[in-house]
Specification:
The complex is a heterodimer.
Chain A lengths: L4 H5 E13 L7 E13 L3 E5 L6 H8 L7 E6 L2 E2 L5 H7 L3 E4 L13 H11 L8 H11 L16 H13 L5 E5 L7 H18 L2 E5 L3 H7 L2 E6 L2 E7 H6 L4 H7 L41 H5 L5 E4 L2 E3 L18
Parallel strand pairs in A: 3-8, 3-9, 6-7, 7-8
Antiparallel strand pairs in A: 1-2, 1-4, 4-5, 9-10, 10-12, 11-12
Helix pairs in contact in A: 6-7
Chain B lengths: L1 H10 L1 H18 L1 H4 L31 H37 L1 H15 L3 H12 L3 H27 L3 H8 L4 H37 L11 H8 L6 H29 L1 H4 L3
Helix pairs in contact in B: 2-4, 2-11, 4-5, 4-7, 4-9, 4-11, 5-7, 6-7, 7-9, 8-9, 9-10, 9-11, 10-11
Classes of the chains: A alpha/beta, B mainly alpha.
């Protein structure tokens, strides 16, 4: 094997993923929920994704577990392109990537006991005939901090935090490598949020998990993530490690977004950057850089050319013309 | 489950009452030759329109037939028409609606337009046409009733499924690799069946009446066969002799109400949230 160490460590590689939703009539055009997004996730890291609501972060997460089929692009998990899998291969792939949902009360079937819910993954994959399934479920339940007596309960008899723990246990049942946390703590009380985040952190260490952590809560993402991706209108505009992003943000959108985090220490707080206007409609995004309509630093080039994600610092990628000196407007680019 | 049913009997008196009433009528219908004191179609001109007495508990009708015996025998047809029609129509409608709602898109469109074709006819006329074309007997009448009744269940089921399928537990099952059939039968139908069940229990009375309407029009059961609905419609002519229409009417009423109580109880039994309360 002549692969570099780094390549070995890549768990997931997203390659130009596009998810477009067609409108009802042909005239409407399609909503570009995720538009040409590429990134990699290393084994054992937590990749956080932030962005305003409607920027496509949930759609991206759902695509990674194939709840949503990508319109275009490839998703490699362990070198295997999961974007085009079907039937039994897809079912097999399900064991590798699981998802934790936002609403703990909606993600558990109200008519089944916790035990039946946790039994489901084993039944689906034909593992329920094995002797130690019961023991396995009991182990799972304890792993997520519940007791075995909870197994005979129904979802409505549990609290929100407990339900979310059941959701986590269900996601863990198939021993996945990647877990997509789709706003996994936003529906919980703040105190419970911390507990669940700690649990996730603990599980990550114990089971060697990799998280794709979606949230609109910047503090939460900051707390858990090793690397953070910032999304705006279906595009990844900045990817960097947590430390790098904390030190210096390149993209004007990231700057504005992160300036919105409330600071305890008043002296340390930076000037809050207020963005003007609304997020444009993803069915009819602005030309060039999608952010140019609201960007305080936009120039002529931004209106015409779409910026590419370039590496401005080691491991720090930005899609912004301010830092891209190589490309420039050509004659042919100017349309209309 | 057995424990839950026992608990339901103990705590929900209306459910218990409903079960008793329905079982009573069903047993009476089955044991009709044994329990009825007279022949239900034997006429006796001397005893026309007798008021209820010890000899004739429910009195006699315009042909001097014993109404008590006729009500007992009548259960054989009315109950069969009511229960079986609702049961079959309910099952067809449930699956049809669930599939249409879950699959969605073009399949949904085609399936629902087909069911609406049936709904667009006045139900009585459609049942009459089917009956007239196929020939009039008990089986064909019930077949016609099922044809007319199932689209309502399908529509109800579809509308419930449309909202149930958006729940995250459906997606959770999908991510775990569950097949569409498994999701439909284990996640969606159990969570949507409730309203269909309740509608079915209220529909039993309707179907009995519908059957008797068809009988009245000369389809279904023909006189002198005793049948609750027909007995009511015959009895209306003698409205100052309340027992002629009153007792068979009471039979339909108790049966329908009993079925309703059972439906309520079943709803509680099927919903874990309500199960705790009793």
């Amino acid at each position: 094997m002549s692969k570099t160490n780094e390549a070995d460590n890549v768990l997931l590689k997203a390659d130009h993923i596009k998810v477009h939703f067609k409108g009802k009539s042909k005239k409407d055009g399609s909503v570009k929920a995720v538009d040409d997004v590429s990134f990699t996730i290393m084994r054992g890291e937590t990749f956080g994704v932030v962005g305003e609501s409607g920027c496509g972060k949930s759609t991206l997460g759902r695509t990674l577990v194939r709840l949503q089929d990508p319109t275009e692009g490839h998703i490699y998990i362990d070198e295997c392109d999961i974007a085009s899998l079907k039937g039994s291969e897809l079912k097999e792939m399900r064991k590798k990537a699981q998802i934790i949902f936002q609403d703990p009360s909606a993600c558990l079937n109200p008519r089944r006991t916790i035990k039946q819910i946790l039994m489901e993954p084993y039944e689906i994959h034909g593992l329920d005939k094995e002797k130690d399934v019961e023991a396995e479920i009991e182990r799972l339940v304890q792993l997520v901090g519940l007791d075995t007596y909870h197994l005979s309960r129904y979802p409505h008899e549990l609290s929100g935090g407990q339900k979310q723990r059941v959701g986590i246990a269900r996601a863990l049942a198939l021993k996945p490598e990647l877990i997509v946390c789709d706003e996994a703590v936003s529906a919980l009380d703040v105190s419970v949020q911390a507990q669940v985040l700690n649990l996730l952190e603990e599980l990550k260490k114990k089971l060697n998990l990799t998280y794709f952590f979606i949230s609109h809560n910047l503090n939460v993402v900051y707390q858990v993530s090793d690397r953070v991706g910032v999304m705006y209108l279906g595009k990844m505009v900045e990817i960097a490690t947590y430390n790098k992003l904390y030190e210096k943000r390149y993209h004007p959108y990231t700057e504005a977004l992160l300036s919105a985090i409330p600071q305890v220490d008043d002296s340390a707080s930076t000037e809050r950057i207020h963005l003007k206007g609304e997020v444009p409609s993803p069915s009819n995004p602005p030309s060039g850089c999608h952010f140019h309509t609201r960007c305080p630093k936009a120039c002529e080039k931004c209106r015409i050319l779409e910026p590419k994600l370039i590496e401005v610092d080691e491991g720090h990628f930005v899609a912004c013309h301010l830092y891209d000196t190589e490309t420039d407007i050509k004659e042919g680019d100017i349309t209309e | 489950m057995v424990r839950a049913v026992k608990k339901l009997f103990k705590s929900n008196y209306l459910f218990t009452l409903g079960v008793i009433v329905c079982v009573f009528w069903i047993v009476m219908a089955i044991l009709a030759p044994v329990v009825s004191p007279y022949d239900p179609i034997e006429q006796n001109a001397e005893l026309r329109l007798e008021a209820p007495s010890l000899a004739h508990l429910f009195g006699t009708d315009n042909f001097g037939r014993d109404i008590f015996s006729r009500v007992i025998y009548g259960g054989r047809y009315s109950l069969l028409a009511g229960l079986l029609t609702v049961f079959i129509a309910g099952i067809i409608g449930t699956f049809y609606g669930a599939i249409a709602g879950y699959v969605g898109g073009k399949v949904d469109n085609i399936m629902m337009r087909l069911s609406e074709m049936i709904l667009s006819f006045p139900s009585l006329i459609l049942a009459m046409i089917i009956n007239a074309v196929m020939g009039s007997n008990l089986f064909n009448t019930m077949f016609a009733l099922v044809i007319v009744a199932w689209p309502t269940y399908a529509r109800l089921m579809r509308s419930v499924v449309l909202s149930v399928k958006e729940n995250e537990y459906v997606e959770a099952a999908e991510v775990l690799g569950a097949s569409k059939i498994r999701i439909l039968t284990k996640e969606i139908i159990p969570n949507s069946i409730q309203s269909v069940l309740i509608m079915a229990t209220t529909d039993i009375g309707n179907q009995i009446l519908m059957f008797s309407t068809l009988s009245f029009l000369g389809l279904g059961s023909a006189p002198p066969t005793p049948e609750w609905g027909m007995m009511v419609s015959d009895g209306v002519e003698y409205f100052n002799k309340f027992w002629v229409a009153g007792f068979p009417g009471l039979a339909i009423f108790t049966m329908a109400v009993g079925a309703n109580f059972i439906g309520d109880g079943l709803r509680d039994l099927l919903d874990p949230k309500l199960r705790k309360q009793f």
